[in-house]
Amino acid sequence: MAGKSIAADATMVRKLLKSAEEFHFAAELCRSKMDMQKPESWLLAPQMTNYALASELALKGLQGHHLGIITHGHDLEALCKSLPAASIDKIRGPDYSDQSFWAELKKCRRTFEEWRYTHEAGQIRAHLFFIQAFARSSIGVLHEEVAGPHSPL
Question: Average pLDDT over the chain, rounded to whole?
Fold first, then answer.
């Protein structure tokens, strides 16, 4: 884990979880407005940005929980690789082989940076279904590891 980092305690981890859930909720609101027959309704940039930020915050919460630090940066692949193997396996879940998970994550690693500046980026590929599932899974794992599987925060 190169780069700057800050110390994280249980309070910081819970704040990261709450923020991750809020950005995920915003992405889901955008998704709920999608009409596949009307591309102008897709709100793709806000969806991608919010799912990516929700993922980032959840991964940083897991860093704080397991490592006691949170690193700076938006690279989802690097953040995920900093976590214990057991947490990564839970995030990956049964839907992806190890190889396909890392291949998909590599494609999405800079989603937040790319999609928040779509006006500068030119053509960007959307990996909506993966980033959506990754956000949901990352948040679920953080919630389970911090509060337990059946515990509301």
Answer: 90
